């Protein structure tokens, strides 16, 4: 029986799967062969498309007619396709997609959707598509109960949670299925359904509230998505009533084994656990004098019989640092902490590492930890939710930043995309908002993440155009070009009008929106720029600084070590330099600050007017929402420009070389 | 029937009315004469004292015996005593207190309590005591419902509210009576029971929830305290369903008249309304193109038939100011706004003016508005709750600051204490905390406020010693001296380690606790210091600045106009000067900043050790609470010192003249 496509609630945006995206398939004749649960999903998709566009679908044996499209399970070729791979070819007027598993067939279907009419023209040589990374995951920082400070979704800018509301499961499973469908269409295959900061209500999802997780898992399963759960390391104490959560304690091991067995009874394809331990106040193995490998292996052992994994976050640092102490460097923390543990993690334990050494700033170097643990499965964590990049009120398409991270080559000439054997993870930017992501254009981030997780060396601008083509079917060139124009450079634009040259954290404390140059300067969070009247930046060199640059292999260690060779965009991350220091661009640091901040605002003004010119080409609700957010972005960009420029003008005393007014 | 003294709940501190404070009276023979409700209160007090200490009390006609103390109503002397005045004399072994009203007799009783055994020694010439100010009021910024940002008590640092909890009346009326008793003992005679920011639940106290206010009024009445209510100017719309709240609209006037009549039906001695209008988002007459006099007179007219007054706050300024605009000066706002309205306010309207032009900073000049409205009844508002002065985690006895304000002489040689014809008001620092005020030593602020409201030219240090004597009966000299030592200079100490030289607002945004030198520098709140690499301060001179100095009469206008004559402690409030500017003290501004910040911390260390030396002399619970808060104060003072010194060292580049380490 074909599985019906989920119906979107009234007013909810179809994102990159509008009905018209299925026109090419829906108007043709399709044969579907094979038997597996996800084949029913594929069948349902084609049935709905044909219903809308007048095509035909045949299931099982061919009926003797000619088919434009054949979607067939089981036809293994010379190379193993695995559960998720597929082939695509066109010959004799028929486009054939084959896969050895249901998920592969579903991904093949969405591949044809992306190709559109191109899939049905001429001949196509047989192509094999397989995901580079087996795990392509979204972590939801959703709380079950509304947190007094962080709300329903921590760092959420897209309305409420898709899963939870006011302490209960939201129960809108059709919306969850529709979400799963969107994720499958860009290649995502795992979702963790609750915040890594696990509070009291959320902790119980593991035990007596597992049924609520099972409902979500059931809704996501038809789209090939496995469900994961953030758990509290202290669960044996807080939920199990044990006197300890010591990972070497037998009763603790038994408790986790039993709890995990019951999870799998409820969710047979459960993906595993996500754990934030000994980090920003969360409990962890340190309390028992145990290492993080011992902590992670405890959960890995419980998951191992069922094939699950634990994603153990490497985000461990001293968040009660003394700002007066310039020798402690938060950037060093993950490397210093975890590299000595390389080789000690069990196979079912994945160490989940943020892509940069700090915390999702608009510009950071790639974390040196990623290349430094060859005997450990690593996952790399990105942040789709725009905590530090405009909070979905500003357009900031992160594709180029993520691509830069994934293509960065560590030692042994392996790229980050290759090193991320444990998968690519992003903190989700989606929520109950009718546009899914608050800012309609932030959908491009979610889509791009999925596609880069499938193929880390993909060209991000091609992915962007793919998203445009899907989301705005049959867009006239003016619209497609306009969308590309306002998104493509938006990350650089955002960087220009915010914190300069890699220095980071010039945001308002707490909510992290809007500028406060000294907001985190005298804080315990390890986030400093050390600006004084003479210069700015953090000396992280080996020779005179914190030594962080030495955590990289060559050539990076040497490159970052000297201000002469350090790339401009990371200069203040690695070095404290005078305002008069001349960049490779030929400008002084201070003039660079002034210029980029003026330019950033001008670029927002330009993007806003491009968007205004697209009125009439975009549906009115979406156009209005984006137009309204551009007003806020422009206001915000001007505020950033003026606060940053005034701060550095007051501090440096250096007038703008172009004589512009700085307060 | 004598009214029983309220019983304190278990564990609640007796503050300045411990049983032993009544020893002198309770061990003697007292005659009470006269009939009035408050005479029953007096009788109850003496009965309880005698029960405890073995004395005797006779009510009505003398029984032929000799009396140590006679408390008599009705014996009017040559000068009118009014409802609140009393005389005290001692002759022939009897101390006699007379009053023409019950409240006077109650105040006379507490006068004898303060005198203790001294009241019963030798002869005492007849003294007349009358309050200088008819209204001595506490404004509670208590919310009925817990506000999502501000909580149960806005700027409350003493636990929950005494009146409200989670949307309902707290109903602990014995605690409210005990509170009233403490207030009466220091001379306070009015309490406003809800926050000046009137949210939805609070607005209804005026109408269908007036019964809850009446319960509080009934509990406070036996101690001579009238109850007031903060109301929303928009009430005719939000509660009355009218289309407008225009003060000149007949239906609006009728609505207020009717609502007020019903208030007096519930509370016949109701004091009146408190209104924050057109301020920080509260509604007001501006919406209808009416003046604040027209707004205030609307409510005054409704209250007039019943003898109530409206306290109309003068805290009106632009809280959405552009920080780039240096011509707008928040300090000017109240004067600019209200002086043109002088003479237009009705007799029952009192304009309630904050003592300084900004907002309760640790150092501000006295508001020039106070001397500039001779035809308007003014009340002066102080802040006992320590929003900007350590939030009751730091010891900061405000007596000297308040006394300085009250003794400040405006035009016509009248002091602020004399100009405050509409009363003295303080934002209360009391709450449900077992010590009433969070920090046990913050009780001294509450007590001092009451005594200064009674006698604005009182010597604050004498009031402090009075508080010590009452609160720590029979304290050995070491204890009395120690308490005096840690409190007396504490305001100056707090000033030293926080914002220097009158500049203000270097606090963390939102909660206002702890340092953030630039926290309000680029904000819309009108709160700037304009520090750059060369200097700091706000030019408020007439010649080159915002002109604020010209709002004062001579000699102040001239004195403040020039940095040469401006008092050091207000220099940065009135002038922008280079860091090298030499103060009258002979120090440069920058060296003054460094020195005071080091000194401030040293003074806290000294106070902490004085307190430590008092262990064993103070009851353990109180000693522990204060000791614990000294740890936080010291931590906080060091943080203030280091952030402020580092900020100015980084900005100015001037090293400390004494070579101390600054990060």
From TrEMBL, chains A, B:
Its EC number is 3.2.1.139. Keywords: Glycosidase, Hydrolase. Transmembrane segments: none annotated. The active site is at 280 (proton donor), 359 (proton acceptor), 387 (proton acceptor). GO terms for cellular component: extracellular region. It is an enzyme of class 3 (hydrolase). Residues 126-432 form the Glycosyl hydrolase family 67 catalytic domain. It comes from the Bacteria. Residues 437-660 form the Glycosyl hydrolase family 67 C-terminal domain. One of its GO terms (molecular function) is xylan alpha-1,2-glucuronosidase activity. One of its GO terms (biological process) is xylan catabolic process. This is Alpha-glucuronidase. It comes from Streptomyces collinus.
């Amino acid at each position: 029986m074909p599985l019906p496509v989920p119906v979107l609630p009234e007013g909810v945006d179809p994102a990159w799967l509008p009905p018209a995206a299925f026109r090419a398939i829906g108007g043709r004749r399709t044969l579907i062969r094979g038997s597996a649960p996800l084949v029913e999903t594929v069948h349902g998709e084609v049935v709905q498309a044909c219903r809308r566009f007048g095509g035909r679908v045949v299931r099982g044996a061919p009926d003797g007619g000619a088919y434009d499209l054949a979607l067939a399970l089981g036809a293994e070729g010379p190379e193993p396709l695995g559960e998720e791979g597929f082939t695509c070819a066109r010959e004799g007027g028929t486009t054939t997609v084959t896969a050895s598993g249901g998920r592969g067939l579903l991904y093949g279907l969405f591949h044809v959707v992306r190709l559109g009419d191109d899939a049905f023209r001429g001949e196509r040589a047989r192509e094999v598509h397989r995901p580079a990374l087996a795990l392509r995951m979204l972590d939801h920082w959703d709380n079950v109960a509304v947190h007094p400070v962080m709300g329903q979704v921590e760092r959420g800018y897209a309305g409420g949670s898709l899963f939870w509301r006011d302490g209960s499961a939201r129960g809108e499973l059709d919306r969850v299925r529709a979400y799963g469908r969107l994720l499958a269409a860009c290649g995502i295959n795992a979702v963790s359904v609750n915040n890594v900061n696990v509070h009291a209500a959320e902790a119980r999802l593991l035990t007596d509230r597992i049924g609520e997780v099972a409902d979500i898992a059931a809704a996501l399963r038809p789209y090939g998505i496995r469900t994961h759960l953030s758990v509290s390391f202290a669960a044996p104490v807080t939920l199990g009533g044990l006197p300890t959560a010591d990972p070497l304690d037998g009763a603790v091991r038994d408790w986790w084994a039993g709890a995990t067995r019951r999870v799998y009874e409820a969710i047979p394809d459960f993906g595993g656990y996500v754990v934030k331990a000994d980090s920003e106040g969360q409990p962890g193995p340190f309390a028992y004098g145990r290492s993080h490998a011992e902590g992670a292996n405890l959960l890995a052992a419980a998951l191992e019989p069922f094939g699950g994994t634990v994603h153990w976050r490497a985000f461990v640092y001293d968040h009660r640092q003394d700002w007066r102490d310039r020798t402690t460097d938060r950037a060093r923390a993950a490397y210093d902490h975890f590299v000595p543990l390389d080789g000690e993690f069990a196979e079912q334990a994945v160490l989940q590492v943020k892509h940069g050494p700090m915390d999702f700033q608009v510009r950071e170097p790639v974390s040196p930890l990623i290349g430094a643990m060859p005997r450990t499965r690593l996952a790399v964590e990105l942040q789709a939710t725009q905590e530090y990049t405009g909070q979905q009120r500003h357009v900031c398409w992160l594709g180029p930043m993520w691509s830069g991270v994934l293509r960065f080559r560590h030692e042994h000439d392996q790229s980050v995309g290759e090193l991320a054997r444990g998968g690519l993870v992003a903190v989700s930017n989606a929520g109950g908002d009718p546009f899914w992501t608050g800012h309609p254009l932030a959908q491009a981030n979610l889509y791009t993440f999925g596609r880069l997780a499938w193929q880390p060396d993909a060209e991000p601008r091609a992915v962007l155009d793919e998203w445009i083509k899907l989301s705005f079917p049959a867009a006239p060139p003016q619209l497609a070009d306009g969308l590309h124009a306002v998104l493509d450079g938006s990350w650089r634009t955002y960087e220009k009008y915010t914190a300069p040259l890699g220095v980071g954290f010039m945001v308002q404390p707490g909510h992290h929106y809007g500028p406060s140059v000294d907001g985190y300067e005298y804080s315990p969070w390890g986030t400093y720029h050390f600006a004084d009247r003479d210069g700015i930046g953090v000396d992280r060199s080996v020779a005179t600084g914190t030594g962080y640059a030495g955590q990289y292999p060559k050539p990076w260690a040497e490159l970052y070590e000297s201000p002469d060779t350090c790339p401009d965009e990371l200069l203040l991350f690695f070095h404290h330099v005078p305002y008069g220091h001349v960049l490779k661009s030929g400008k002084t640091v201070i003039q660079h600050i002034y210029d980029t901040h003026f330019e950033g605002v001008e670029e927002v003004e330009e993007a806003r007017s491009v968007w205004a010119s697209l009125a009439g080409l975009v549906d009115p609700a979406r156009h209005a929402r984006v137009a309204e957010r551009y007003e806020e972005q422009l206001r915000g960009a001007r505020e950033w420009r003026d606060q940053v420029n005034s701060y550095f003008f007051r501090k440096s005393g250096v007038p703008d070389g172009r004589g512009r007014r700085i307060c």
